[in-house]
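Form 12-C: Joint structure prediction
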Amino acid sequence: MTDPAAPLLRLDGVRKDFGKTRVLRGVTLDVAERTVVSVIGASGSGKSTLLRCINLLEPVTDGQIFLDGEDISDPRVNADAVRRKIGIVFQSFNLFPHMSVLANVTLALRRVSRLPKGEAEERGTALLRRIGLESKAKAYPDRLSGGQQQRVAIVRAIASDPKLLLLDEITSALDPRLVGEVLDLVRELRGADTTIIMATHEMPFARDVSDSIVFLSDGVIEEQGPPEQIFGEPRSEKTRGFLAGF
Amino acid sequence: MSRDAARLSATETERRAYRKKQSVRSVFVSCASLAAFSFAVYITLSRSEGWTRVRNTFFDPHYFADSLPSVFHGLLTNLRVLFFAVLGVAALGTLIAVTRTTVSPVLFPLRALATVYTDIFRGMPMIIVLYLIGFGIPGLRIFGRIDATLLGTIAVILVYSAYVAEVIRAGIEAVHPSQRAAARSLGLTHSQTVRIIVLPQAVRKVVPALMNDFVAMQKDVGLVSVLGAIDAVRSAQIAVAKSYNFTPYVAAGLMFILMSLPFIHLTDWYAARLKRREQAGGAV
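Section 2 - Result
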């Protein structure tokens, strides 16, 4: 459990079926602490499903997921407690439209970590200042641009210092001009030693920030390695074919 | 504004003049049609054979003024019933709606019960529920004498909770599942997610429908009179029984309308305020 060399996250033969559709067919992967892993692959290859399984938003069909040595795929673990350690940012932001930006960011601090309101708002304001949106604290999400909303969603996910941050194609729903500001924030998080797993279609970005690239194809890891190798000299025919499309 | 007007292009000036002409024209047309319509109604009524009799029986100023104090006093009973019924319906309706949207197998009996409840109370005529509660519960002789107003309030709560539960359930189902996913991913428990994330959004989505039920309810509180509660309708009835003139009924009816107006406009205002705050862009 306390083995320092043990990975923060370990997936062991993770399978996920939706009815008769087999989305994940046995994914085995180690993610070390303070690393950034990018999961790439065609639409429908299982990237989002993998992230949702890690966050226990979907129960796995088979296999095990270990976080800090604990088997979190065991139905007896407290899923709410596990999710507190994992932040996730969605493709479609999913901010709460009936709450102000600040209330969105401080929700977990107030309701899950049970910080006093003043302290939670202080932290929330600091996070908003960091992304340059302090002036929007009282605004409602619908008043923000897509890029601003996604940055708010990111700081909402990291507000209570999760051990692991999952980013699920966070730039796919954005206007190309707004992608940059979101990616800059992710780059900054990498510098802050956050462990990140991201599903992405932004290949140059993945190459730039990742320690490791995982190419997912038809629900299995087709190839995995450092970015230079995956993008420079992919070994698998499928990887070459996929990357040729970019 | 006026300084800007100086810089307007000729095209825009012409367009504005056109719009102004159009709006003057439509005001004139609507005034004319209203006058014509009123005149037609007036002619039809006043030329009908029994108009004088109807006017004297239903619209007599003397009886109107005479019955007003007691009818108004009775309306206070209706308001009291309404107040407690709204609180009861809000609580029970929400509870039933949330129960019906649960998925846990443990809660199956509750879910089934909630379904049966909404089926029964939406199907049964209000007046029968009133009789069953109003005469049935005292008949059990468990509680001693119970005030007719209280029994009436209970009946109203039972019936309207079934309607409101269905409206709120529709609202809950209209909240996108991604909102639940986002809430749970932050570590919120299931019940926190329902209370903090799902219900507030669900209710916002169904405010007009809830308002509709509320307005229906505020006049159905007049039915507690069948149990003998001295409300506005009952007071009017008493006045009618004394004079054989039906004007007090009209007075009671007017009072119910007056009672509903502030609520209707308050909710419209509230809905508009939420919309302004949480939704960018105007409606076309």
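Section 3 - Comments
Chain B has a mean pLDDT of 91. The two ends of chain B are 23 Å apart (CA to CA).
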